[in-house]
Write a structure and sequence with these properties.
Elements (H helix, E strand, L loop, with lengths): L6 E3 L1 H9 L9 H7 L7 H4 L6 E3 L4 E8 L12 E8 L9 E5 L11 H8 L1 H6 E6 L15 H9 L8 H21 L9 H14 L5 E7 H12 L4 E9 L6 H5 L2 H19 L1 H4 L5 H17 L2 E3 L2 E3 L1 H11 L3 H16 L6 H12 L4 H13 L7 H14 L1 H4 L2 H9 L19 E6 L7 H10 L4 E6 L11 H13 L1 E3 L3 E4 L11
Length: about 525
């Protein structure tokens, strides 16, 4: 059942609210940057031309944009390259504007995403030129470099992150310090400038080079954080904003990330394990959630005692936990995949060779080295972190005990940020002041951007509307929920918002698999 409240039109309110902040002419990036606390943009950046060429897919064009390394000292240091993309509206005369989007992570690539967004909504594709980019530090843009893949793999394959012995704790801190030293040595002085604040100035230059006064915006996951910062720093440059699966952009990365072990454990125990038990005839992991959990723990204990060499990939308990957390993001693909992995890892000898190779490849690299480098550059550099190692030992011990699925890795992540070079990134306070209403979406059991975080962000973002989705998937727009899709399309295309916070029923969990 889909629950709707009476829609209202925001168009009149937008006109009133934005007349007070008169629009600047297209290309006036220097004035906007000054509004956001940065000096004027040098001519070599604001007068550059984007050389659009076919890329990624047949429907996308890409270009390279040159940006200052440091927007607060734009003449200091070498320029960076930010790769940008666009999917043009079919009828330029009929389009209503530009829709900018970004990728999550931080660390994921946004370059190919406009094609998928356009494919998923004919209304958006007709109404907007849809544009995106690889954020500085990521993908085809100037990369930040830290440790190589072998070292990153060692974070999740060495030992057992649930081990709280003195030796294990020292090893975690040693690996964290080594990783940070690699970042400082290999990044060429780039670390202080791989922040959300620097990226939003890149976004506004991109807007200016597109020749538009304002953009609308869609951002899922970390891109919600990016979008909230952009709207706050450049309030006269946004028209309609949709934030999907929200990081708490009103707080710090530390306060947000320490909440994740709870939400991953909740998704695992309240959604996955009951589904797995319901499918016991197929996966044979236990007929009740308690039995299924015990089966998972037995397998994990066996991998602790004797890691499994699976087609050349050594499978450890940490890698099992990473596979489980990854599966929690989306039930229809993730739950059956994890259930099949559990069955295979219990008895790999009876599985076909191609199935063993597939699972080995899936679990070989728990996190990509490039993703890892950008993730920590942003999350450690955007907002302050506690640097007391004893604090993190005590806190992570409790997280490991209560919410072990993701709590066991808390010390690894926090130890990196506790050793990160101190950042000079400005404090950005997101309040919603001066902004059009923002449409927010979040599921109640989202494991990564947990609902409690979204509620805090919603309360701190004046005038926002929150669509609560009654399932646990991460990302709601264009993921099979017609109710959520309708709210987003109606707002971005027609300016229609619900009169108040409202609810969508979620997408049901996968049907029980057929007997094998």
């Amino acid at each position: 059942m889909q629950l709707f409240t009476k829609p209202v039109r925001w168009a009149a309110a937008a006109a009133c609210g934005l007349l007070a902040a008169a629009a600047l002419p297209a290309g006036a990036a220097s004035a906007a940057a000054a509004d956001a606390g940065a000096p004027p943009v040098p001519d070599r950046y604001r007068h550059q031309k984007l050389d659009w060429q076919p890329c990624v897919s047949g429907t996308l064009q890409c270009a390279a944009m040159s940006v200052p390394r440091d927007w607060y000292h734009p003449d200091a240091g070498p320029s960076l390259t930010v790769r940008v993309s666009r999917h043009q509206a079919a009828d330029p005369a009929a389009r209503r504007g530009v829709l900018m989007m970004a990728a999550g992570g931080p660390g994921a690539s946004g370059l190919p995403r406009p094609a998928n967004l356009a494919k998923g909504s004919a209304k958006l594709s007709a109404a907007y030129d849809i544009v995106s980019f690889d954020q500085r530090g990521v993908g085809a843009s100037t990369n930040v470099v830290c440790s190589d893949q072998d070292k990153v793999d060692a974070f999740f394959s060495s030992g057992d992150l649930r081990d709280r012995s003195g030796q294990a704790l020292r090893a975690t801190f040693d690996r964290a310090r080594d990783f940070v030293q690699d970042c400082e040595r290999e990044s060429g002085g780039l670390l202080p400038y791989i922040t959300t604040d620097q990226a939003v100035h890149d976004m506004d230059l991109f807007r200016s080079l597109l020749g538009v006064d304002k953009v609308s915006y869609y951002g899922p996951s970390y891109a919600s954080f990016l979008g909230a910062y952009y709207a706050t720093e450049f309030p006269r440059r946004v028209e309609r904003v949709v934030l999907d699966s929200n990081v708490d952009f009103t707080g710090s990365w530390q306060s947000f990330l320490v909440g994740q072990p709870m939400s991953f454990q909740r998704r695992f125990e309240q959604d996955f394990l009951p589904w797995l038990a319901k499918n016991d005839r197929v996966y044979h992991q236990g007929a009740t959630p308690a039995e299924a959990k015990a089966s998972y723990e037995r397998l994990r204990a066996a991998l602790h005692d004797r890691p499994l060499d699976l087609e050349g990939t050594l499978i450890t308990p940490n890698q099992l936990d990473v596979a489980a957390t990854n599966a929690m993001y989306e039930a229809h693909s993730g739950f059956p995949a994890l259930a099949s992995q559990l069955s295979l890892l219990e008895d790999p000898g009876s599985a076909p060779a191609d199935a063993r190779k597939a699972v080995a490849n899936q679990m070989k690299h728990p996190m990509g080295a490039n993703f890892f480098a950008d993730f920590f550059s942003v999350t450690c550099g955007d907002t302050p972190w506690n640097r007391d190692s004893r604090y993190w030992v005590d806190r992570s011990t409790e997280a490991t005990r209560v919410n072990p699925l993701a709590g066991a890795r808390e010390l690894t992540f926090s130890a990196i940020c506790a050793n990160w070079p101190r950042s000079k990134a400005p404090h950005i306070k997101v309040t919603g002041k001066g902004l059009p209403p923002v449409l927010m979406l979040n599921s109640i059991h989202d494991p990564a951007t947990y609902y409690e975080s979204a509620v805090r962000a919603h309360r701190g973002l004046a005038g926002s509307r929150l669509i609560t989705v009654n399932d646990g998937d991460h990302g709601q727009y264009q993921t099979g929920n017609a109710c959520a899709d309708a709210y987003v399309d109606d707002y971005l295309v027609d300016g229609t918002l619900p009169a108040a916070d409202t609810t969508c029923e979620g997408v049901p969990l996968p049907e029980p698999a057929a007997r094998g």
